[in-house]
Amino acid sequence: MASTSPNAPPSVSRDTMSANRSVNWKSIALPYAIAIGAQLPMLLLYSRNLYLDKPHYQTFPFAILATVIIAWMRWPKEAKMPFHRSVTSDALLVLGLMFAIACVLFKFPSAAAGSVMLLIASLLARTVDKETLKSLWPASLPMFVFLTLPSGLDVALITKLQYYSAICTSRLLDLAGLGHHMDGTVIQVPGRASYGIEQACSGVQSFFTLVFIAVVFIVAFRRPFFRSVVLLASAVFWALFMNTVRIFLIPVLDQADIDVAHGFPHAMLGWGTLIVGALMLLSTDQFLSFLFGPVDTETGRSGPFGKFFTKFWNNLVAGKNLDDQTAPRKRRGRKPITQAGRTAIWSICGLLALGGIWSSWDVFYAFTNERHSVRFFDLDVTKPFEETDLPAKLDDWSVVDYKIDSRERGSDLGKRSDLWTYRAPNCTAQISLDQPFPGWHELTTCYKNSGWNLLSRQRKESELEVLDTNGQPGKVSWPYVVAEFNKPTGEHSFLVFSLFNTAGAPVNPPASWNPLMYFISGIKNRLSGRIRTQFFNRATYQVQAFVAGYGGFDDSTKGQIEERFLRLREITRSKFIEKSAPSTPVQ
Q: Is the whole-model pTM more than 0.70?
């Protein structure tokens, strides 16, 4: 008689089991593979953007590798039914579809990455760990560490960690007697180079890398929920601690003419920091095992109350009852996927595949254009400006510098900025035209992400003189936004900005800016060009005035900045309309 699997009934032959596995793979794994494969181009673009623009996520490929290795090691290769019904898997599959739809509508590579991660988690949720007989979906958790957080929360988190690292480093340098000055997140040592906290907290030694190592450790060694949460929290501490030590060593060793801020020594210092951080995580896990380990119920005379509290403690810290030997048997009653379920899987994965193929055009464009970005506009809607487009002198303001900033990577949002620097008697103001954007662009968010703390934001009313359809002069409302910021170093800044659209019409700013407004604006702005053009502005252009300095600005200075801004804003708009007008052919 043919041998059978230990979990199979005696009457089931090897040929039957092989047939069942074949049906499972063809009807379940194949649609998942097609859906994932169709989105791989967008996932490739996502990983490329992470590597180039967000060095904190550079270890993303290791997360994919970790998931593959853990899943392969725990896969029930001899099971007669590799896949089974799972409500969790169904929910993850639907979420993956929603993320894919978001990618198609909004051209958002991170949505495609989230969709692929959810699909892998859904597939793993349909099988079991061959040792514990629990769902295998936790093997996908390492990947989710590198799914960028919405609303720029990952940038805000890193900025906050950099700020605290700067404070801790400054205190250590004080204890070491090394004279220095902290300019934001930059250490300035007299007679030596400046050391940026931003660069020191990036790369493989970042916070996200240590969190990734903690998650792999949790999944690989099956740590219970309570200890997992504590271990993840410790990863934050060790990331802050080790990066502080690393940043501290750079200027200290530089005093002995040992340069570890550049080249190979700098890379070795980073890897050393990562290794020590990983060892600290291992030490923390061992300490948690000692402190919160399960209690053996076989020894001792604890009585009925003692046994009750022992079981409660083991369930809390170990996630299981050591006396319960029937739990694994209860998990063996897995039900096969019905024909309707297989049809639903094929239908959803088919939609996912179509969405991935549709998005592949955006990926092709991103890798063939010079900016290597997902485009938001079907055409180039930027308008070339020159230094002479704004007056060289405006009352007591005079232009002292002009430059063009072109952003070569990322999306085509704000890819060009024309910047005029005006020297005034009591300040230096930067006037810029930033273009293009797909709708309202909340500039205060950009300054917050660059390290400024927002103190106030206010919408103010103003009017613009225009000609109506009959050529008669009139006025329309064109509100603008003023905002104030500061930094821990004592630096203050004052910002005034507003936007107009392709036709030169004013864009009305929201009275307040909150997460709901950010979400609504983000949805409108990220829609594909053809969809967005039918319902909203095709493109918008931003004019801003930014002034920074120590000690703040009085009401008179802020009023003067606003008055000059309004005049320069109208000049910029008029020049834009002039440049947008069709040229008259020479007779």
A: no
